[in-house]
Amino acid sequence: MRKTIQLSLLFLCCILSSCSVTYSETATKNPIKQETLARITAMPNKPQPFKILDFKQLAKDYDAKVYDINQTGKYWPLIWKDDSRKNFDQETFGIYTAMGDVRQGIENHKGIFHESLASIGSVMGASLVGIDKTKQNGKNYVAMLKNYFNKDTKWDIIMNNTSPEVALLGGGYARDWWYDVYPNLMFYAVADFYPDEKDYTSIQRSIADKFYKADSTLAGNYKYSFFDYSMMEPKESWICKQEDAAAGHSYVLYAAYKKFKDPKYLKGTKSSLESLLNQKENRYYEILMPFGAYVAARLNAEEGTNYDYSKILEWTFNGTSACREGWGMLLDNWNGYDVSGLMGSTVDHGGFAFLMNTYDSMWPLVPMVRYDQRYANIIGKWMLNASNAIKFFYPYEIADEHQTIPEQKEYTKGVIAYEGLIKKSHLKKYEHLKAPIAIGDGPNWIKDNPDVSQFSVYGSGHVGIAGAIIEKTNVPEILKLDCLATDFYRDDAYPTYLLYNPNNEPKTVTYQTRNRNKIDLYDAIENKIILKNVVNAGKLLIQKESSKLIVEIPAGSKIIFKNGKYYVNKTVISYK
To answer: Could you give the CA distance from residue 455 to residue 434 in angstroms, rounded to a whole number?
Structure first.
């Protein structure tokens, strides 16, 4: 279980033991030099039209409506009971991938066809914003996720479906590598919130063992379309070689190492990451690549390695993938709409961004900064653009003339977004619309899928990632980003936030804290205390186009520098 150190408890301990805390302002002479990335530099400093959604409230509203079996109206409810008892002898549940999807629901395919991208993703999203999914309306949705652990087929990992019976209906089960790897990252994230959930530890062990053995089998060569985890054999198909699966392996294996302390998992982490780093060309396929950057940064900080992972970030953002042409980050303005920062294809129909990919890229990239402060400006600017542009997926946030089915937006109840945002429609009936066009793939998945299947239930369920990370400040363009929110399986830490000022002049932010006691604000970029004895709020000056990486430490704390790290009370506050 992740632990954010509560300063109130620390102060109480000091009082009870009559301890005294001395203050020492330790600082480097120069702040940590910021790296640049041309594609990020080219993004607008003030994207337009500008509005940052209340993602946390949106995540709570999504959960309240989607997980309500009693919701009424056309296409609702979006959740159903699955009593097929695959893999575990228990009831589980399904959530629609898209609204009105004719493949799904309790009346189709015995209710078995549902995807972990929707189920695990939405449980993760809700947990991130503080909702206990083990005790919700008499249901333990966390326990029900175990049915995605495919032990009946001997794959013994979490998969996108519960069984091969519905594998060919969609979702890439056992044939499209990222679909088999990514659910395990999500499951590990959920497990960090609920470490005592029955069977979770053994499932996590199984996943880690499978990934470790797979990496050993691959021996540095990830040039395959997928991997058969039952036969422990790599496979090729018409799908391009998804070599960034190595990033997914490394992420799960390092999480397993932090949980179980088994050195073989650390060995597997390094081996799979090095497989990714040794690749000669960009093989970014869907979502896994940025997790490699996070793992590399964390290994350098915590394990003393010296990986140069700059090319992983370049591959994530630059849109140069040789596997899935143009996959990366959009950098464009469509008819006055800044869409820079959204993730997806930079070339498909002029550009085709996806909701889930944009939300989920925030997960590894924001916490990466606390392990490698050199990228604070890059991630801060990207997050500003992505957080602003993501509203265009939501039918009540974009003009009717820029969406395919505005007349049906009432069915979303304000919580379901379109799956994608495209420059030129890939659906013939909407070719007359001008960019940006809020749209979805649903009608192309299967004959008879209704137009409303463009509304993405699965992608909308990942909003909790943004909800946990993003907080507004009194300066609209300066966001306060929680670097601990998605930093799973981390060591104890003090609250840590990234604030980036995109303006061409210094700005003063009213920095608000939830701590009830006096704190000092330590900047991990300058490696010094910049504000002392803060109670509730303080004024924070941020220079133009620069960042602060704020760590909230107890007021008057002694800062110790040891072995390349800065500590307060034996807790690392800066890794450089």
So the answer is: 19
Question: Of the candidates 60, 81, 98, 119, which has an alpha carbon nearest to the alpha carbon of residue 411?
Answer: 98
d(CA 20, CA 56): 39
Task: Give the residue from 54, 47, 30 showing the smallest Cα distance to 414.
Answer: 54
Q: The tokens 């500008």 sit on which residue?
A: 50
List the pLDDT tens digit at each of the 576 positions of the chain. Answer: 556 775 544 443 333 333 323 233 444 457 899 999 999 999 999 999 999 999 999 999 999 999 999 999 999 999 999 999 999 999 999 999 999 999 999 999 999 999 999 999 999 999 999 999 999 999 999 999 999 999 999 999 999 999 999 988 988 898 999 999 999 999 999 999 999 999 999 999 999 999 999 999 999 999 999 999 999 999 999 999 999 999 999 999 999 999 999 999 999 999 999 999 999 999 999 999 999 999 999 999 999 999 999 999 999 999 999 989 999 999 999 999 999 999 999 999 999 999 999 999 999 999 999 999 999 999 999 999 999 999 999 999 999 999 999 999 999 999 999 999 999 999 999 999 999 999 999 999 999 999 999 999 999 999 999 999 999 999 999 999 999 999 999 999 999 999 999 999 999 999 999 988 999 999 999 999 999 999 999 999 999 999 999 999 999 999 999 999 999 999 999 997
Count CA atoms within 13 Å of residue 393 on its CB side: 31
Close Cβ partners of 322 (under 8 Å, ≥ 6 residues apart): 281, 282, 283
Radius of gyration of the chain (CA): 23
Closest Cα partner for 342 from 324, 357, 363? 357
CB distance 148 to 214 below 8 Å = no
Phi and psi of 227, rounded to 5°?
-135, 130
How far is Cα 214 from Cα 55, in angstroms, rounded to an integer?
A: 37
Q: Which residues contact 470 (CB under 8 A, 6 or more apart)?
A: 52, 55, 56, 383, 387, 479, 480, 481, 482
Local structure of 553: helix, strand or coil: strand
Q: Are 246 and 292 in contact (CB under 8 A)?
A: yes
> Which amino acid is residue 172, in one-letter code?
G
Measured distance between the N- and C-terminal CA atoms of the chain, rounded to whole angstroms: 25
Structure tokens belonging to residue 375: 């990228």
CB atoms < 10 A from the CB of 22, how many? 7
Q: What does DSSP assign to residue 45?
A: S
Contact of 53 with 45, CB cutoff 8 Å: no
Which residue in the block uniquely carries the two structure tokens 């949980």? 259
* Other beta carbons less than 10 A from residue 13's beta carbon: 11
Q: What span, in angstroms and rounded, lies between the C-alpha atoms of 519 and 15?
A: 16
Establish whether the linkage from the previous residue to 436 is cis, with ω within 30° of 0. Answer: yes
Beta-carbon contacts of residue 472 (< 8 Å; ≥ 6 apart)? 52, 479, 480
CA atoms within 13 A on the CB side of 374: 15
Residue with tokens 């991208």: 117
Whether the CB-CB separation of 164 and 188 falls below 8 Å is answered with no
Beta strands in 229-377 (DSSP E): 233-235, 327-329, 333-334, 337-338, 343-345, 352-354
